[in-house]
Design brief:
Layout: E1 11-18, H1 21-25, E2 32-39, E3 43-50, H2 58-74, H3 93-115, E4 126-132, E5 135-141, E6 145-150, E7 153-158, H4 177-180, E8 182-183, E9 192-196, H5 201-204, E10 205-208, E11 211-214, H6 216-226, H7 233-243, H8 246-251, E12 256-263
Antiparallel strand pairs: 1-12, 2-3, 3-4, 4-5, 5-8, 6-7, 6-9, 9-12, 10-11
Helix pairs in contact: 2-3
Pfam families: PP2C_2
Protein name: Protein phosphatase 2C domain-containing protein
Domain PPM-type phosphatase: 20-227
């Protein structure tokens, strides 16, 4: 589901979500869901959610969550009555992404209530990325990560949470989701971002004594190759083919999602 950019737009988005072998063998659909939006020349947003395998309706929860998060962010980019300016010019990024997570949490609870089903049955993780003008900011609840390209440097803007046990995660539907929400610093001078779920972590990240780091042999060639295709169906297909390649399958049987946002106008300085 590429997001074709409007004429003169700064941002382009492509991505794919594929079912892992474990789900395919059980006849289950991919429980990763993503959605993106480009707000003219002002900004762009991506939301990625991973339905928990232990949640019977995790896929549906993920769908509701990403839709609500993107809708909440889009409101900030509606032009004023005079046709110029928008609320995103005045609201700090960290407040917008936190508000998007809150909107997603509330939407899943409303949906669960309407279905007369416990909200735990719709449990999912959530990553929200906002590219507002020259600032990139993320919010993350649960697994997954975000790597950004700043000049020639790869920056892990949002790292996976440290876990003592497999599948130990605080989902969006948990009462303590706000405490578990990790907001990144604002990052400037960015030319590309990659948002991905935990099914990709083993290939995309390296665990070192001081924490996680981007896997350098992967990201620089990847960003270079995908940049001309971003925002087109060809970009989506290239990412999907990568995720179902033998190398990826051998590293993880989990569902995998990778979404890329690019721009041709990176400028400014890293503020984190």
């Amino acid at each position: 589901m590429s997001v074709p950019p409007p004429v003169g737009c700064r941002y382009r988005i492509s991505g794919a979500a594929v079912a892992g072998l474990s789900h395919q063998s059980e006849g289950r659909l991919c429980e990763d869901i993503w959605e993106g939006a480009v707000f003219g020349v002002a900004g762009a947003a991506v939301a990625v959610a991973d339905g928990l395998g232990s949640a019977p309706h995790g896929r549906r929860g993920a769908m509701v969550a990403v839709s609500a998060a993107i809708e909440a962010l889009s409101v900030f980019f509606i032009p004023g009555p005079d046709g110029e300016g928008c609320d995103a010019e005045h609201e700090p990024n960290h407040a917008m992404v936190r508000g998007a997570c809150r909107a997603a949490h509330n939407a899943v609870f409303r949906y669960a209530s309407a279905c007369n089903i416990s909200s735990r049955s719709f449990a999912c993780t959530l990553i929200v990325l906002l590219w507002n003008g020259n600032q990139v900011t993320t919010a993350r609840i649960g697994d997954g990560a975000v790597v950004c390209l700043q000049g020639g440097e790869q920056i892990l803007l949002s790292a996976p949470q440290e876990r003592r046990y497999v599948n130990e995660v605080v989902p969006l539907t948990d009462e303590g989701y706000e405490d578990a929400c990790v907001i990144s610093s604002d990052l400037s001078c960015v030319t590309a971002c990659a948002i991905f779920t935990d099914g990709c972590e083993r290939l995309f990240l390296e665990k070192k004594p001081d924490g996680y780091h981007p896997h350098e042999p992967f990201f620089l060639p990847f960003f270079s190759a995908i940049e001309p295709l971003a925002g087109t169906p060809e970009g989506d297909r290239a990412i999907a083919n990568l995720l179902v390649s033998d190398k990826f399958i051998s590293f993880s049987e989990d569902d995998k999602t990778l979404v890329v946002v690019t721009t041709n106008e990176g400028s400014g300085e890293y503020t984190g």
